[in-house]
Amino acid sequence: MGVSKLDILYRRLLLTKLFIRGWGRPEDLKRLFEFRKMIGNRERCQNLVSSDYPVHIDKIEEQSDCKILDGHFVSPMAHYVPDIMPIESIIARFQFIVPKEWNSKYRPVCIHLAGTGDHHYWRRRTLMARPMIKEARMASLLLENPYYGCRKPKDQVRSSLKNVSDLFVMGGALVLESAALLHWLEREGYGPLGMTGISMGGHMASLAVSNWPKPMPLIPCLSWSTASGVFTTTDSFKMGQEFVKRFASSADKLTNLNLVSRTLNLDITNQVVSQKPADCHNSSKTCVSATSERLLLQDTSKIECFNQTLSTSKSSYTSCNPQSYHLLSKEQRRTNLRKEPLIFMKGVMDECTHVANFSVPVDPSLIIVVQAKEDAYIPRTGVRSLQEIWPGCEIRYLEGGHISAYLFKQGLFR
User: Fold this and answer.
1) Do 49 and 179 form a contact (C-beta atoms < 8 A)?
2) What is the rounded distance in angstroms from the CA atom of residue 86 to the CA atom of residue 84?
3) Are 218 and 197 spatial neighbours (Cβ–Cβ below 8 Å)?
4) Range list of H helices, 16-149
5) 139-143 and 91-99 beta bridge pairing
6) Strands 109-113, 66-74: parallel, antiparallel or unpaired by DSSP?
7) What is the gyration radius of the CA atoms in the chain, in angstroms?
8) Blockwise average pLDDT, block size 10, the chain, 414 residues
9) Contact status, residue 292 vs residue 269, Cβ threshold 8 Å
């Protein structure tokens, strides 16, 4: 099976633009790894967003064939991991496109999560939501990603996330925000409900459905089991997994972490993640104030461990064989030093984004995965199949590569 040259070119261009500021703050990464353990367990995650989580409609626009509702709500992520999101991303915004007439007594809705570079709503509304109203009288809810559109930080250039940690923040936020919207749709009497997304949007939709406590139709398009793209079993990959485990050996640490700041002579208040979202959303201002006092602990020793691990990954080639290392040219040494952090990052990203680290959806038989045969942007070779992770799901293949399918085959996704 061949691979798309267009995908390879796009991949090279994209990788030069992402994460230009590095990993992000060590204390932020620590809190995100702790939080990942919580949302990786459906039994725990389903209690994070209450069924009456407040959602507000700001505007209703009447059109010939549909109504378009614009709304917002406070991202639940801001309650559980305060100060981790940019101020612009805290308010989650969405657009709800509803047909004026339904085909039956049911009012089906599909939530569409955005792919890479899909800012605002125009693309999803034009290529997916509008045609779905005409073809099936199905409503669509378009959620704007953190770091995109109106939620984009002022100092961010286009879709280029500045830090690796930003991607983890986006994923965690979308899982909780999707739950808030699903609860709201149920309260409003809509159903059946489903989720979809293309590329990164498909992967985020997969994580969201994994945490929903009811059977949920899911159609992830052009995504696979992990965001890292290439699954590797090198020493650096294992080091990346070990790095995460040293920060978060169990999910229970979210509430049991204790740092005696007086012993360390630090002016830090003992803070833990809030477990009661219902107490947070009664008042927006009170919520921000209250949750800011319940930050996850910034464990200094573990942050030092993080820095140590990064340093180790950079010098691992030197230490494993110092004699042969000195025989290499400067260019070869530079190449080897570049490879180590990249492979290490893949290990960390697999630990945080691989769907095998999340619960299996309640009913995998409701999942149809759409893949491009020549996809070179998200390669499948050497990566665990979704059919293995989600027994009973169906995988369908279309001709072409990732980019060509994203641009020209939206009709097949519908």
Assistant:
1) yes
2) 7
3) no
4) 26-39, 42-45, 77-80, 122-124, 130-136
5) antiparallel
6) unpaired
7) 22
8) 54 58 86 90 92 97 93 97 95 96 93 89 90 92 95 87 89 96 97 92 94 95 68 42 52 34 34 46 43 39 49 47 57 68 72 87 94 65 81 86 63 58
9) no
- Beginning with the edge strand found earlier in the chain, give each strand of the sheet holding 218-221 in spatial order: 56-62, 66-74, 91-99, 139-143, 109-113, 193-198, 218-221, 368-372, 394-398
Residue the block writes with tokens 């991303």: 89
Residue 316 near residue 347, CB atoms below 8 Å: no
Answer whether 111's CB lies under 8 Å from 179's CB: no
In this structure, what token pair is assigned to residue 288?
Answer: 């921000």
Say what the alpha-carbon torsion angle 233, 252, 361, 228 is, to the nearest 10 degrees.
Answer: -30
Domains of the chain: 5-232+351-413 (3.40.50.1820)
Closest CA to 390 of 242, 207, 254, 230: 207
* Residue 131 preceded by cis peptide, ω within 30: no
Give the burial string for 24-57 (b: 16+ CB within 10 Å, else e): bebbbbbbbbbbbbbbbebebbeebbbeebebee
Query: How many Cα neighbours within 13 Å face the side chain of 23?
Result: 21
Local structure of 131: helix, strand or coil: helix
Helices 26-39 and 164-187 sit at what angle, rounded to 10 degrees? 40
Q: Angle at which helices 235-247 and 330-353 pack, to 10 degrees? A: 50
Q: Which residues face 287 on adjacent strands?
A: none
Contact 7, 403 (CB under 8 A): yes
Is the separation of the CB atoms in 309 and 198 below 8 Å?
no
